[in-house]
């Protein structure tokens, strides 16, 4: 009788453990190909992950659970591809929690990449453009390791990060909040940073680097650039 009770107890505990585990396990991912119009900008809202590749033909695919994919929007407005859960775009008002969704985007030409919220966008391979705008609003991340552009504008609002490498004659940076721009692997001739708050910009410049800082943020410059600065507060512009 004692052994029977122990066996029954073990079976009950095992059933509880399996049930608890299943409640935390996401369903197997489904993959959908989405048909959208042409675009040159990508805007991510929310918590998804986006993998971008420059190339042809254009394609958009999403991966996640069936339930999450049913709520996930991939729509082109003007020249912009908007990626977000519908409720996070204000179209549906609910507090439903979503599982992980990954978006795979291939596009022949891109001029702007933007992340809003806590999502992550990363470019796989080289990205070429006459002009490029990179922006993060919120706590998200944007990674562009191999950029070749004629000019670049980089903006961070909040606590997010932009990491960019490659080559570009100039980089114009704006930071508001505690975010970071990690551009020390982006070879530029001139870099400018305007920082409000505690954010940091790490850059490489061979000719000139100009920092305007209000607050405790910093501009850290690699390369042989001549530095110029205007600061209010404890911020600084220094070589690293």
UniProtKB/TrEMBL annotation:
Transmembrane segments: none annotated. This is DUF2807 domain-containing protein. Residues 1-29 form the signal peptide. InterPro entries: DUF2807. Keywords: Signal. Residues 39-224 form the Putative auto-transporter adhesin head GIN domain. The keyword Ribonucleoprotein does not apply. The keyword Signal applies. It comes from the Bacteria.
């Amino acid at each position: 009788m004692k052994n029977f009770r122990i066996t029954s107890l073990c079976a009950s505990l095992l059933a509880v453990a399996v049930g608890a585990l299943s409640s935390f396990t996401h369903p197997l991912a489904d993959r959908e190909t989405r048909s959208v119009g042409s675009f040159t900008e990508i805007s991510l809202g929310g918590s998804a992950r986006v993998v971008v590749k420059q190339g042809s033909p254009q394609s958009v695919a999403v991966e996640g659970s069936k339930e999450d994919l049913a709520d996930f929007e991939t729509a082109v407005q003007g020249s912009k591809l908007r990626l977000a859960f519908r409720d996070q775009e204000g179209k549906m008002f609910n507090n439903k929690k979503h599982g992980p969704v990954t978006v795979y985007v291939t596009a022949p030409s891109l001029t702007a990449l933007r992340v809003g919220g806590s999502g992550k966008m990363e470019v796989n391979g080289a990205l070429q453009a006459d002009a490029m705008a990179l922006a993060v609003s919120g706590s998200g991340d944007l990674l562009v390791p191999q950029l070749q552009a004629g000019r670049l504008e980089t903006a961070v609002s909040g606590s997010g990060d932009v990491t960019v490498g490659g080559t570009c004659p100039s980089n114009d940076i704006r930071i508001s909040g505690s975010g970071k721009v990690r551009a020390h692997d982006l070879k530029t001739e001139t870099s400018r940073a305007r920082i409000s708050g505690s954010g940091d910009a790490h850059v490489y410049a061979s000719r000139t680097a100009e920092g305007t800082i209000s607050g405790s943020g910093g501009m850290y410059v690699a390369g042989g650039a001549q530095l110029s600065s205007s600061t209010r507060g404890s911020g600084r512009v220094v070589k690293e």
